[in-house]
């Protein structure tokens, strides 16, 4: 019995895929017999042949843009496509600029922290909250401190009360192994905090510029006064000018 082995090569490989354009079809790239045409001001023109729609686009010096390709017939609009793309890019850029990125800062404390360290770390928490960021407060227990969780709880309550003007308790204190955690959220959104920081920065720059201008004006007035008084006469030298001040009497 003879067995023959054969190996056939796939002469029609499957496509590996490629870039799929997300740009709408415009002008001559629209290959349909007719479209539902919308005018440049949004007015409904009706169903027209593609040749007529392209002619209207040329006469209006606009582009014919397919805005709803899945409709039957597809919807096309007369518009300045270059301007349309530019405005959309500007809107997307502005949206990204105003997008708030949630940032969680972390501050670690000990249950028996001294007053100076507490005030320093509280200042950092206030700064984070004023900037519109959340803050996770971690109380770290060591050794026998683990048997007294009320120390950490009371410290977190005190901190929350001290920064109440700038933030609120978003997640109440809870035990997590050897640590106790609490999350504070800011009263102001990050965009509002950035806007206020920008206004404050501009105010400080204006005050600094005003101080520099005032100083220059005062210096100019002094110079003007000296110029108006004229050159001062030289002082006559007397015998005392020749005495050596270090010489003994």
Automatic annotation (TrEMBL):
| Purpose of the protein | IF-3 binds to the 30S ribosomal subunit and shifts the equilibrium between 70S ribosomes and their 50S and 30S subunits in favor of the free subunits, thus enhancing the availability of 30S subunits on which protein synthesis initiation begins.
Indicate the segments forming the Translation initiation factor 3 N-terminal domain, all copies. Answer: 26-94
Pfam families with a match to the protein in the record: IF3_C, IF3_N
| Family membership | Belongs to the IF-3 family.
- In Swiss-Prot or TrEMBL terms, this protein is called Translation initiation factor IF-3
- Give the molecular function GO annotations: ribosome binding; translation initiation factor activity
Identify the domain of life.
Answer: Bacteria
Question: What are the record keywords, sorted?
Answer: Cytoplasm, Initiation factor, Protein biosynthesis
Record region (Disordered): 176-249
Q: What organism does the UniProt record list as the source?
A: Friedmanniella luteola
Annotated GO CC locations: cytosol; membrane
Span of domain Translation initiation factor 3 C-terminal? 103-186
Q: Where is the composition biased (Basic and acidic residues)?
A: 192-218
Q: InterPro entries attached here?
A: T_IF-3_C_sf, T_IF-3_N_sf, Translation_initiation_fac3_CS, Translation_initiation_fac_3, Translation_initiation_fac_3_C, Translation_initiation_fac_3_N
């Amino acid at each position: 019995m003879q067995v023959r082995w054969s190996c056939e090569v796939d002469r029609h490989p499957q496509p590996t895929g490629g870039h799929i354009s997300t740009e709408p079809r415009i002008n001559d790239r629209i290959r349909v017999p007719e479209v539902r045409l919308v005018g440049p001001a949004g007015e409904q023109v009706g169903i027209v042949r593609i040749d007529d729609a392209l002619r209207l686009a040329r006469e209006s010096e606009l582009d014919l843009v397919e805005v709803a390709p899945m409709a039957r017939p597809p919807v096309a609009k007369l518009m300045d496509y270059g301007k349309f793309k530019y405005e959309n890019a500007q809107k997307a850029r502005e949206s990204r600029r105003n997008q708030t990125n949630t940032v969680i800062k972390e501050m670690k404390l000990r249950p028996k922290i001294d007053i100076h360290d507490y005030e320093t770390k509280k200042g950092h928490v206030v700064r984070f909250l004023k900037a519109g960021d959340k803050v996770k407060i971690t109380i770290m227990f060591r050794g026998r401190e683990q048997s007294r969780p009320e120390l950490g709880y009371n410290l977190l309550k005190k901190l929350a009360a001290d920064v109440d003007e700038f933030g609120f308790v978003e997640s109440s204190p809870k035990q997590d192994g050897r640590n106790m955690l609490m999350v504070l959220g800011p009263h102001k959104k990050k965009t509002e905090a950035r806007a206020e920081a920008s206004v404050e920065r501009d105010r400080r720059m204006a005050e600094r510029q005003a101080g520099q201008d005032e100083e220059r004006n005062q210096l100019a007035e002094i110079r003007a006064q000296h110029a108006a008084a004229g050159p001062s006469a030289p002082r006559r030298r007397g015998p005392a000018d020749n005495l050596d001040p270090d010489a003994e009497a």
